[in-house]
């Protein structure tokens, strides 16, 4: 599943997440990415924690097309929605584990049909003290598989039935095999919904105050803040803090200054240039965790359903116009990231990735001229390509206020100008871009990151034709590039249902190669994760590449 700056679904493969600690005076010049972080301090009770938040989602309907912003999932959805399985740290790796919602691991039967049985913990309950039962599992499936304006139906559309005849047992029978059932279904970016409190998922646009997690919403003041308080009826370990305020600061530089000035005690900033520089130098009174081994994959995405990118020759010419290494080195050399990624598959899933799929796309004016000539474009006297009286002009959209992306666009603009293209920059608010414009295809080129929410390489979610958002399907689906290639449907579609991991890895690599030939997307960087926290925060502070940086916030506390 994808949230551009959004969530994207993958399976648990071999994963080593290396975190670095940069404390005051810790500037030894070594490879900080190989230093482990110790976060096992006891946390006191009480207090209010204020966290800077870079983005505000358009809604809190996690199933809906409007509910895809990562920040809302990390700060609200992941902390209030119960889930059957969670992605948790295990030593130096992460793995899928059953949560306290279940009495133990779900059982899997693969023949004659795939059947998964979940045994529900009788102590599990919603914030109104109503037990969480198999009816909630069935309701969630029905909403995702059959509801309107669904963000992503992947996996749920493969379920044939959910038997809820026993309250503490949910029996899920599949129409066809589905590999990523642990970390996608009844978890992932949706969680499980209360059948007795929700009639239709779309009624959650403005938020909800019920919860099946350790936190619940106190209030959401749009454009300003959203505040969480402990769910006193949570059956597991309850939060130690009295309140957590997520303060909206959309400008990363301003967010960084608010952190340095003590206005907020934690931030999870986009890796901007000034932040990278200051982290490298050391931050008094702060701890920093950062890594390029992330679940992120930032890229230039092209809308193949609209001119000029409906022409593969035009897309190819643009791909050969750009030196992506120059961009990545300019952005992230301070944290040791200097080369562009060559695959749409995130770094933490390297066994599934064709890591040289896009390597052929290097700056090459000869190939630019060749590709444009195939479609009848010629250079005008001003050096810009033209055809039928029209100039080779197009726009790029990204998130407003993001200085790093603005710099990326400016470098791109210069390189494309040299190659004979006019690029205009048309950045948007995150809620508008991800909640409306990308699903509706209201863009030509866009710069954003796909962010994983589970550990299986379901690139089908992003590039299979069945996942193209349309008016007819309520703009559901995450194939924003409108990629429509039968070979990709076959390859990435097979990965979705392949229970043999070795076969899935080989097939996904073939899919990556086929996508590179179609070039509807041009991978750029792994978008390193950076988590900055005040030294006053104690407890299990650790980033999670799938569930976000606040997943263990129930155990956080504040020292005076």
Terminal-residue CA separation: 40 Å
Strand % is 15-25%
Principal-axes geometry comes out as globular
In CATH, the architecture of the domain at 296-525 is Roll
Task: Give a concise summary.
This protein is α+β, with helices and mostly antiparallel strands.
Notes on the protein architecture:
The chain has 560 residues and is α+β, with helices and mostly antiparallel strands. The chain is built from 13 helices and 25 strands. The strands form 7 sheets. Strands 1, 2, 15, 19, 20, 21 and 22 form a 7-stranded mixed β-sheet that branches. The chain has a 4-stranded mixed β-sheet with strand order 3-12-11-10. It is globular and about 75 Å long.
Please outline the helices and strands:
Layout (H helix, E strand, L loop, with lengths): L2 E2 L1 E5 L37 E6 L16 H11 L4 E6 L2 E6 L8 E3 L5 E5 L14 H13 L12 E8 L2 E6 L6 H4 L30 E7 L3 E6 L12 E6 L3 H9 L5 E2 L5 H9 L4 E6 L4 E7 L9 H8 L4 H9 L32 H10 L3 E2 L5 E3 L2 E2 L1 E5 L5 H17 L2 E4 L4 H11 L4 E11 L4 H4 L22 H12 L3 H18 L2 E5 L3 E6 L2 E2 L18 E2 L2
Properties at a glance:
seven-stranded mixed beta sheet; 560 residues; four-stranded mixed beta sheet; single chain; Dipeptide-binding Protein, domain 3; 13 helices
């Amino acid at each position: 599943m994808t949230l551009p700056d959004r969530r994207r679904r993958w399976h648990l493969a071999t994963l080593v997440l290396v975190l670095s600690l940069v404390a005051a005076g810790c500037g030894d010049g070594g490879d900080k990415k190989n230093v482990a972080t110790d976060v096992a301090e006891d946390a006191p009770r009480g207090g209010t924690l204020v966290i800077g938040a870079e983005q505000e989602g358009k809604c809190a309907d996690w199933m809906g097309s409007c509910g895809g912003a990562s920040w809302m999932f990390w700060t609200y959805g992941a902390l209030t929605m119960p889930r059957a399985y969670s992605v948790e740290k295990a030593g130096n790796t992460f793995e899928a584990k059953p949560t306290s919602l279940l009495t133990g691991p779900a059982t899997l039967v693969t023949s004659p049909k795939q059947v998964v049985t979940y045994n529900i913990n009788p102590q599990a309950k919603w914030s109104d003290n109503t037990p969480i039962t198999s009816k909630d599992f069935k309701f969630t499936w029905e909403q995702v598989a059959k509801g309107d304006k669904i963000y992503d139906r992947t996996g749920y559309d493969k379920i044939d039935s959910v038997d809820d005849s026993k309250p503490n047992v949910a029996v899920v029978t599949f129409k066809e095999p589905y590999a990523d059932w642990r970390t996608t279904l009844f978890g992932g970016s949706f969680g499980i919904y209360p059948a007795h409190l929700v009639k239709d998922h779309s009624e959650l646009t403005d938020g909800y105050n019920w919860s099946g997690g350790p936190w619940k919403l106190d209030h959401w003041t749009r454009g300003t803040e959203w505040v969480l308080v402990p769910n006193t009826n949570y059956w597991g370990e309850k939060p130690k803090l009295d309140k957590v305020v997520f303060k909206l600061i959309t400008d990363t530089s301003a967010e960084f200054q608010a952190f340095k000035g003590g206005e907020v005690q934690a931030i999870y900033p986009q890796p901007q240039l000034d932040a990278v520089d200051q982290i490298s130098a050391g931050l008094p009174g702060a701890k920093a965790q950062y890594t390029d081994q992330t679940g992120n994959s930032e890229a230039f995405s092209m809308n193949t359903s609209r001119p000029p990118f409906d022409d593969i020759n035009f897309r190819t010419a643009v791909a050969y116009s750009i030196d992506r290494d120059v961009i990545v080195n300019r952005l992230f050399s301070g944290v040791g990231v200097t080369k562009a990624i060559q695959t749409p598959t995130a770094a933490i899933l390297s066994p599934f990735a064709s890591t040289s799929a896009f390597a052929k796309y290097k700056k090459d004016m000869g190939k630019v001229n060749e590709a444009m000539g195939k479609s009848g474009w010629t250079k005008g006297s001003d050096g810009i390509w033209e055809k039928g009286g029209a100039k080779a002009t197009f726009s790029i959209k990204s998130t407003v206020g993001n200085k790093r992306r603005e710099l990326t666009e400016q470098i791109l603009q210069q390189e494309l100008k040299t190659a004979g293209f006019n690029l205009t920059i048309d950045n948007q608010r995150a809620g508008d871009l991800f909640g409306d414009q990308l699903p509706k295809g209201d863009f030509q080129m866009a710069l954003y990151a796909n962010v994983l929410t589970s550990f299986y390489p379901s690139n089908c979610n992003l590039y299979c034709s069945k996942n193209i958002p349309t008016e007819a399907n309520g703009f559901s689906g995450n194939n924003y590039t409108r990629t429509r290639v039968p070979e990709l449907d076959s390859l990435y579609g097979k990965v979705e249902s392949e229970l043999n991991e070795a076969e899935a890895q080989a097939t996904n690599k073939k899919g990556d190669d086929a996508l590179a030939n179609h070039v509807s997307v041009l991978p750029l960087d792994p978008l390193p994760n950076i988590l900055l926290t005040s030294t006053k925060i104690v407890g299990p502070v650790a980033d999670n590449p799938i569930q976000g940086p606040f997943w263990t916030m129930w155990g956080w506390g504040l020292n005076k």
